[in-house]
Design goal:
about 500 residues, alpha+beta, Aspartate Aminotransferase, domain 1, Molybdopterin biosynthesis moea protein, domain 2, 7-stranded mixed sheet, 4-stranded antiparallel sheet, 17 helices, 20 strands
């Protein structure tokens, strides 16, 4: 479905101008059909406060599956047509609408290729949804020994050589999963990773939660479908402009679409939101018709912000200068990531100050960095406001403080047992300082970004405990564990 010439491009754009699901919804809305089905609010009449909040038009199209509107579990008409247009727009063989977010799309990818006893090769900085999928299917992660940028404290990309060596050492591996890009804009050489992985007969899965724009932007890193990946999970609601929780799953011709649909139907609701699906249809159309112009502007503004922030002094807004051809093969310039510790503040501290003192909500702050998400809905005046706030924070709040040093191996714990075995095993609750040497029975992660510090089945070390406690002390939002205070941890009962 790739475009090969100018004539095809024009023809495709004519097709992409349609939005079959949206058009069907509009036709339905105008018919004024009397509802004796769910949802029970009956076009908002049963919940006036909801109408006040969302408007009559919105609640009026919050409807149930029916013949004129198709059914996401078994699409045969307008949803099927909308998905086909999405596949064409993204250069994929098939596209599936997801109403459970990219978490569901990632889980569907893993469940489509992995079963109990299999191994899957992954970088350690995977989203928790990957580990959750392994809990469901019984496969075991094999972590790639990825490097960490010592100054920034961020995990870098994986190299082709690392992938090949790991495949050779793990004959039970069935797939390789790649982040494209990472939360911090780091991209691996996904094209060569696909080539070498396929030579060994394994599948390539791409977590492109933060890469929707790669399909519609010039001078941006290569997208997974173009690189030859077998599946890719796309967060349309992040940089693509659809409603929160709406995503898509892409597959190449190397995947059995009917099998993938059967996997999706295990995890997907039977009451799919037409608000979410229609937003996917309209957002796909918008990106197909205007995406290149939009993301050219996004890239320009993000680079402008990067230059302005670096001129303040004390901050480091990093970009393409990190590219080294291996662990940083490429960089997504739309990711405005800023290292803050040279002004004596952790990223999470700057994150909190921006929200509490300047009414600016950025995407996240971690120990050393903040990330502001620049996308199609931003305005230049908002970017100026962010730059100005950071300049004032540096002037008013900078301080000298002892830094927490990030060990390059900290995020690569030993996997003692599979996540599934650990998750369902008998556990005991111990003080966190007594947990070193034990096997974790639960997740510990800062959210966002949702990358586990600890996952079920991993060995706990003193360094990991130090990192957890430092994160808690600095005010990171910690999730995944039973004890919200993180004074104790659940570990496997030996």
């Amino acid at each position: 479905m790739f475009r090969h010439d100018e004539e095809r491009e024009i023809m495709d754009l004519k097709r992409q101008a349609s939005a079959p699901l949206y058009e069907a919804i509009e036709t339905f809305r105008k018919k004024r059909i009397v509802p004796f089905d769910v949802p029970g609010h009956k076009r908002g009449r049963g919940n006036p406060e909801l109408v006040d909040l969302l408007g009559e038009r919105c609640v009026g199209i919050d409807v149930n599956s029916m013949k004129p509107l198709d059914n996401l579990c078994h699409p045969v008409s307008v949803i099927k047509e909308a998905q086909e247009l999405t596949a064409e727009a993204f250069g994929a063989e098939h596209a599936f609408f997801m109403v459970g977010g990219t978490t569901q799309a990632v889980q569907n990818m893993v469940l489509s290729v992995c079963k109990a006893g299999d191994e899957i090769i992954v970088p350690r900085n995977v989203h928790k949804s990957v580990i959750n999928a392994l809990i469901l299917c019984g496969a075991t992660p094999v972590y790639l020994n990825t490097e960490i940028n010592a100054k920034l404290g961020i995990v870098l990309g994986v190299t082709v050589e690392q992938v090949e060596k790991t495949i050779q050492a793990h004959p039970k591996a069935v797939a390789v999963l790649v982040n494209n890009p990472t939360y911090y804009g780091i991209c691996s050489d996904i094209k060569d990773i696909c080539d070498v992985t396929h030579r060994y007969g394994l599948k390539v899965l791409a977590d492109e939660a933060h890469g929707t724009h790669l399909y519609f932007g010039d001078n941006l890193p290569m997208n997974a479908m173009k690189a030859g990946a077998d599946m890719a999970a796309i967060s349309m609601h992040k940089s693509g402009g659809s409603l929160t929780q709406s995503s898509i799953l892409l597959t190449s011709n190397g995947m059995n679409a009917e099998h993938v649909q059967s996997i999706i139907n295990i995890t997907q609701t039977t009451s799919a939101s037409y608000l979410l699906m229609t937003s996917l249809d309209l957002s796909r159309r918008n990106l197909a018709l205007r995406g290149r112009q939009s993301f050219a502007k996004v890239s320009e503004w993000a680079q402008y912000a990067r230059d302005e922030i670096n001129s303040i002094g004390g901050y480091y807004a990093y970009g393409k200068e990190l590219i080294n051809g291996s662990t940083v093969y490429d960089f997504d310039v739309t990711k405005l990531c800023v290292y803050t510790r040279d002004i004596g503040l952790d990223g999470i501290e700057v994150y909190d100050i921006l929200r509490d003192e300047y009414d600016i909500q950025i995407e996240f702050g971690d120990i050393g960095n903040i990330m502001a998400y620049i996308s199609i809905g931003d305005r230049i005046q908002d970017i100026e406001r962010l730059v100005g706030a950071l300049a004032e924070i540096s002037r008013l709040y900078s301080k000298e403080e002892k830094r927490f040093e990030v060990d390059s191996q900290m995020l690569l714990p030993h996997v003692a047992v599979s996540p599934q075995v650990a998750f369902y095993a008998d556990k005991i609750n111990v003080p966190i300082r007594d947990a070193a040497g034990c096997i974790s029975g639960e997740f510990v992660m800062a959210y966002p970004p949702g990358i586990p510090i600890l996952s079920p089945g991993e060995e706990i070390t003193d360094e990991i405990i130090d990192y957890i406690q430092y994160s808690v002390e600095k005010g990171c939002s910690m999730q995944g564990m039973e004890d919200p205070t993180l004074e104790t941890l659940n570990v496997l009962k030996i």
